[in-house]
Design a protein that fits this description.
Strand order of the largest sheet: 4-5-1-10-11
Shape: globular
Strand content: 25-35%
Order of helices and strands: EHEEEEEHHHEEEEE
CATH superfamily: 4'-phosphopantetheinyl transferase domain
Number of domains: 1
CATH architecture: Alpha-Beta Complex
Largest sheet: 5 strands, mixed
Mean pLDDT: 88
Number of helices: 4
Radius of gyration: 16 Å
Low-confidence stretches: none
Length: about 190
């Protein structure tokens, strides 16, 4: 298996999430020379609802979507993924409710809000939980807070994990959470981080 995390992004076009997952998994398996059969695509869920492949427990994945895009990340260890489109929301109000106090105090525009929101969501997907009472208790804000305002791809370590954050060509915010710093490929193209 590869030491690289793979992300597959498709248009959210009415095809079921399960079919997109199967298509992405087939591409991932092909890229990594993994032999699969029909039963390999059976999906099970843990206590919190985090999905996994029954017959490939060492292949981890995380799914996220927006109204326009569907994305799935694969890695050989636990992984969390989030993707968001910028929306016209009261990000200060949302940050006050859902963010750690240090994060909420740092939010100064929608860019900083979505950069942190996708990091927080990728983290809870990484640990296999959803947005719950612990969401605001953990801070994913990097030690060098000004990093959040950079428009380029960036990685940082916080809360014992690595965050890999980037802005897609369409302006969507994407963040992957892993136990170690990884290289990422999106639709088979390597991302410089």
């Amino acid at each position: 298996m590869s030491e690289m995390g793979f992300i597959y992004i498709y248009k959210n076009d009415g095809i079921s999430s399960h079919k997109k997952l199967c298509r992405a998994f087939m591409r991932y398996a092909d890229m990594n020379h993994i032999r699969i059969d029909d039963k390999a695509l059976e999906i099970v869920r843990d206590w919190y609802g985090k999905p996994s492949f029954l017959h490939y427990p060492k292949i981890h994945f995380s799914i996220a979507h927006t109204k326009q895009l569907w994305a799935c990340a694969f890695f050989e260890e636990k992984i969390g993924l989030d993707i968001e489109n910028e929306k016209n929301v009261d990000y200060h109000k949302i940050a006050k409710r859902f963010f750690h106090p240090q994060e909420a105090a740092f939010i100064h525009d929608s860019f900083s809000f979505y950069r942190l929101w996708t990091a927080k969501e990728s983290y809870v997907k990484y640990i296999g939980r959803g947005i719950d009472e612990h969401f605001s208790k953990i801070s994913v804000l990097p030690g060098h807070k000004e990093m959040i305002d950079r428009k380029e791809e960036l990685s940082w370590k916080q809360a014992g994990v690595f965050f890999h954050s980037l802005i897609l060509e369409d302006g969507s915010f994407l963040c992957v959470c892993t136990a170690k710093k990884v290289k990422l490929k999106i639709n088979e193209k390597e991302v410089r981080m």
